[in-house]
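This protein record is not my work; I was only asked to verify it. Where you disagree with what is written, explain briefly why. This is what I was given:
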Amino acid sequence: MTEADSQMESRAANASDKEISIQWYLPSLAKPTNDTETKEMAIRCLSEVRALLSAVPVPTLPLTEIPFDITLQSIATLEDMFDLANGCTITEESLFSWIVSLFH
């Protein structure tokens, strides 16, 4: 265990009951270890988003292609879209067009 790990563990053990620290790991999307796996995961997630937001809830086939560029920004925007406390503003045109198309 490194000194930094030890300090982190010590701070966690001494934190008050009203304090919590959360750290997220976002793997780099620039050079994924497996393009096919990353694409399949994105298609599954976007199929679920489409099912949640579609105006007519009918069973649909999973997406076969990703309707916009998968970037860290687009993933963060999709995540923020489902953040009930804060929401988001979608600025990426292709992502915006896809989301709007779900409501028709």
